Amino acid sequence: MMTEQTNENSSTLARVLNFLATLDRRWIFLLMAGITIIFMVINARISIPISAPAQGVYNAIEALQPGDRVHLSIDYGPSSQAELLPMHITMLRQLFRKKAVVVCSSLWTDSPPMTEKVWEIVAPEFEKIGEKKVYGVDFVNLGFKAGDRTAIASIGNSFKNTFPIDYRGNKTSELPIMQGWDDYSGIALLCTLAVGDPGPVEYIQQAQSRYNIKMITGCTALLSPQLYPFFQSNNLLGFLGGLAGAAEYETLNGESGQGIKGMNVQSAIHMLIVLLVLLGNIAAFLLKFVPDAKPGAPNDPENSKSAEKG
């Protein structure tokens, strides 16, 4: 009787360990989907340390005076909005809180619609609190300009000649926001949100170093390592790198947006993967010491098919 009970316990343990060691990938995908949904819905907040580059971005905008003009170059499209849209929204909010005048342009063909999208999100928020922002007075979307580095150099010489017509078809020479200035001498701060080339490095080469203008940027995580030398040399007052940078920036602004939610999801998924790797390896190791266990039994449907064909 004791032998039968022992064998049954051993068999149950073997099944559990084997299940963990050869976990069907569909369970992993289901767990990841569930965690993603939960952490996007709940308003959980993790502790986010603030880096010096992110603090630099926040400080540069906080130093602006009411009426200061800011050139905001939007150089990313829908494919990169998971990382850059959260910082774009928070940046425009901070600029409007500081009562800055925001002049937007783009060096990427799919970027002007992103500029419009964020304007349509942020402008109504300020209208609700009695601080209406007017297109053509407080904000303008100049649209796309081809030419990469040549376009940046042209912008530095004359905004109105480079963009005679804005994205909405208005003559820029007639817009109130474009009166009384026409080059970087009239810009207090240059901001870029970019995914690659052309992006912040090209703006540093063609505009920041040439006109000695204060500059900050936000970029994808892939691009951010290239920017540390420019931050250390004070070409950049600060920069935001990827989703982590967006989360830091939201934290500095007292917000809890998609950047923080995205970092919550990312952190939870990383923890899940580490846990599954540990459990799988521990289970595979313990199976060696369970009598009559059959390690490596195929739980994955594709492995099962392969075994059947064999």
Polypeptide structure, described:
The chain is an alpha/beta fold. It folds into two domains: 24-45 and 259-310, no CATH class; 52-255, Rossmann fold (3-Layer(aba) Sandwich), CATH 3.40.50. The chain has helices at residues 2-21, 25-41, 52-62, 81-97, 112-128, 149-157, 159-162, 200-211, 228-232, 242-252, 258-287, 301-309; strands spanning 69-75, 101-106, 139-144, 189-194, 215-219, 238-241. Helix 9 (228-232) links the parallel strand 5 (215-219) and strand 6 (238-241). Helix 4 crosses helix 5, helix 6 (149-157) packs parallel to helix 8 (200-211) and helix 10 (242-252) packs across helix 11 (258-287). The longest helix is centred in the C-terminal third of the chain and has 30 residues, at 258-287. The radius of gyration is 27 Å and the shape is elongated. It starts with a helix and ends with a helix.
Layout: helices, strands, pairs:
Layout: H1 2-21, H2 25-41, H3 52-62, E1 69-75, H4 81-97, E2 101-106, H5 112-128, E3 139-144, H6 149-157, H7 159-162, E4 189-194, H8 200-211, E5 215-219, H9 228-232, E6 238-241, H10 242-252, H11 258-287, H12 301-309
Parallel strand pairs: 1-2, 1-4, 2-3, 4-5, 5-6
Short description:
This protein has helices at 2-21, 25-41, 52-62, 81-97, 112-128, 149-157, 159-162, 200-211, 228-232, 242-252, 258-287, 301-309; strands spanning 69-75, 101-106, 139-144, 189-194, 215-219, 238-241. The chain is an alpha/beta fold and 310 residues long. The chain folds into two domains: 24-45 and 259-310, no CATH class; 52-255, 3-Layer(aba) Sandwich (Rossmann fold).
